[in-house]
Design a protein that fits this description.
The chain is of the alpha/beta class. It is built from eight helices and seven strands; from the N terminus they run E-H-E-H-E-H-E-H-E-H-E-H-H-H-E. It has a seven-stranded parallel beta sheet, sandwiched between helices. Strand 2, helix 2 and strand 3 form a beta-alpha-beta unit. The structure holds beta-D-glucopyranose. The site of beta-D-glucopyranose has 9 residues, from loops.
Length: 279
């Protein structure tokens, strides 16, 4: 069948996540969509969270069901505590439990510091950072209640935080976004330390420039794309599947000993490309 994930290729390990239940936030577009489809392709049942755009979420559900696994769409704003609590408890009712939480939902509200409104600041922190806190907390409660089920996974659960290269690269004109991702780095590391004794693995994936709606203006004209490529030593803009493949592997027992790490998936964007010459 026609799929938008993995360029239609077969995965290396077809059923890497067989029998596992995953929830992906912000899964109706961009990186979240590719990740939800990627997890379904390798055998997970998937909850497709979205906040707006039900039709797009339902399409992702249908694509995932095409792999012979279960999926449904769930509308919830990750920055709202009651909605996250309801989303995870419904998942436990529908699927029995949760094994993988991908805290992906995120947004940008760009402005120069002196123009940035408190609403722009709060919105980005609420969704990108508080949303990840709430999703991690609710998932961790269920992981701890259930514990390890060896036939399913060596760990009691996995939390994967979607971060960004901007967890370490300062970004003028985006102080809300960069601060939220810097916060995600420490959220991830602290939760990893706190939850590892419960056999819960917390890690982050930090994408660079990936071709999605969030950064359309950075790649939609040839001039913009040329500018962007100057920041990417590997000289290609990433695809959502570049991220989905890493998340699927990180969620699996292949990477069971990876705890508290950020995996940068950025074509070398974090290598200070401006120093390739000079310095
Ligand atoms: C941002 C994109 C940006 C990329 C690289 C991402 O986290 O959401 O807008 O293109 O980082 O700068």
């Amino acid at each position: 069948m026609e799929t938008s994930g993995n360029n239609g290729r077969q995965p290396l390990a077809p059923l890497l996540l067989k029998g596992q239940k995953a929830l992906v936030t912000g899964a109706n577009s961009g990186i979240g969509k590719a990740t939800a489809i990627g997890l379904g392709r390798v055998g997970a049942d998937v909850v497709v969270n979205y906040v707006a755009g039900r039709e797009a979420a339902e399409e992702v559900v249908r694509e995932i069901e095409g792999f012979g696994v279960r999926a449904y769409a769930h509308e919830a704003d990750v920055s709202q505590e009651d909605q996250v609590v309801d989303m995870v408890s419904r998942m436990v009712e529908e699927f029995g439990t949760i094994d993988v939480m991908v805290a992906n939902a995120g947004l940008q509200r760009d402005a120069a510091l002196t123009d940035m409104t408190i609403d722009q600041w709060r919105k980005v922190l609420d969704v990108n950072l508080t949303g990840q806190f709430l999703c991690a907390r609710e998932a961790a409660k269920e992981f701890m209640r259930r514990g390890v089920v060896p036939e399913v996974s060596r760990s009691a659960g996995k939390i994967i935080c979607m971060s960004s290269v901007h967890q370490i690269i300062p970004w003028a004109g985006h102080v809300n976004y960069a601060s939220s991702k810097g916060g995600v780095q420490m959220l991830m590391a602290t939760l990893a330390q706190e939850l590892a004794p419960h056999r819960i693995r917390v890690n982050a994936v930090a994408p660079g420039a990936i071709r999605t709606p969030i950064n359309r203006s950075a790649w939609e004209t040839p001039e913009a794309e040329a500018d962007l490529l100057r920041l990417i030593p590997y000289h290609r803009v990433g695809d959502p599947d570049d991220i989905a493949n890493v998340v699927a592997t990180l969620a699996s027992d292949l990477l069971d000993y990876v705890v508290g790490t950020t995996i940068y998936v950025d074509g070398g964007m974090t290598l200070f490309p401006g120093f390739a010459t000079g310095g």
